[in-house]
Amino acid sequence: MSASPLFSATAGWTDLAQGGEPLSPLDGRYRPAAAPLSNHLSEAALNRARVHVEVEWLIHLLDHQVLPGAPTLTEAEREHLRALPRRFGPAQIARLAEHEAVTRHDVKAVEYLVGEHLEAAAAELGPTSSLPGLREVVHIFCTSEDINNLSYALVIKAAVEQVWVPAAEELLARLVRLAREGAAVPMLAHTHGQPATPVTIGKEMAVVAHRLRRQIRRIQGTEYLGKINGATGNWAAHVVSVPGADWPAIARSFVEGLGLTWNPLTTQIESHDWQAELYADVARFNRIAHNLATDCWTYISMGYFHQNLAAQGSTGSSTMPHKVNPIRFENAEANLEVSCALLDSLGATLVTSRMQRDLTDSTTQRNIGVAFGHSLLALDNLGRGLDGIDIDAERMAADLEANWAVLGEAVQQAMRAAAIAGATGMASPYERLKELTRGHEVGRAEMREFIRSLGLPVEVEARLVELTPATYIGLSERIAAWAEATQD
Asked: Chain centroid to CA 15: how far?
């Protein structure tokens, strides 16, 4: 059986892998939007955090005089140590790769890099420096997970607080602006896809803003946990080697000194429960944002939102020049789905580890940046999409004018209230309105004629006769203003 023409053709194509072309769209087409996360959630950023933790652990032990016979660091020596993570860049990344090619272990490679930095101190600080003699202090009492769990907590915390939350808050600000602009713009609601009690477009945007704000606050309240307690979480080697030290207190002060919350009860690994909690909150935010994307797409298709062609800056269809496709919302929708799939997987798998430790979390956690990257890309597209739409009040008004039947709810409830107040002739209000409206065309004249035939109290009749679908918006304008609120 011969090979297909396509297969035969590709066999002679240039091997693009040799040029280092990115496999992930986050590192290719979408890199500008996702790039800010690279400073926190890339492999290089993780290694920088590992170096930071190793250096700070060494300083912590010496400054607290935990190790009998160990020297006291000078300020110049502390500065030399801390310069390694601070100046961490291409040269250190390359050297780590060389070490890992030998060690076949990423954290061990970090240990060797820090050790080299100690040995180089004499050239900078002089022959009397104690740093070259401190090689055995590097990584002392640590299992790899002691370094990893703290490093991941630090980089995730930084990525969330410095990149993701600001992007989420920018989206929230855009929604608040849209809620403000559309606070008094009436819109026909659609429950189950059918015409329903009118609202304002601003009120609907305020609802989404309120939902997203709650999730942002949950995410901002995340506890980033960390531990440093040895191979099975009980400081066993610690108390044998230095029995006089208060190891739980030393561990707690170190973890908290990094800006994290100490977890005293672990196996070899920090249990990752806080990560699962965070990812669930971010995924929930994503899904609310996904709801926003699909609703905006629908409003565009209905003509309620008009796409600003200059703001969109897009070609639209490749073959139909009249079209400007709502690609920002579609792109956001798809990337939120990818992000949620990864976040759900992370949350489900990271909370489980066989016995005292298995290594499944090592590979899993390397996808954290990808999960946040797709979410960040979606937020960027949502923001650009919202910036590129205008509210079409005239189109909304036309739909309202074509749907006088929605006043049936108001008339029915007014009849009920009038009956309770003692008015006669108000029996079976729901059934009477159903007979009028269901399956029939009801316009302004028909609705007002029906209202006048009911025998309502004069002031109630007058109020209902003056009502239109465009004015039947309840407290929507007031509710829209709540989008500005800083408190729930």
From this structure: 36
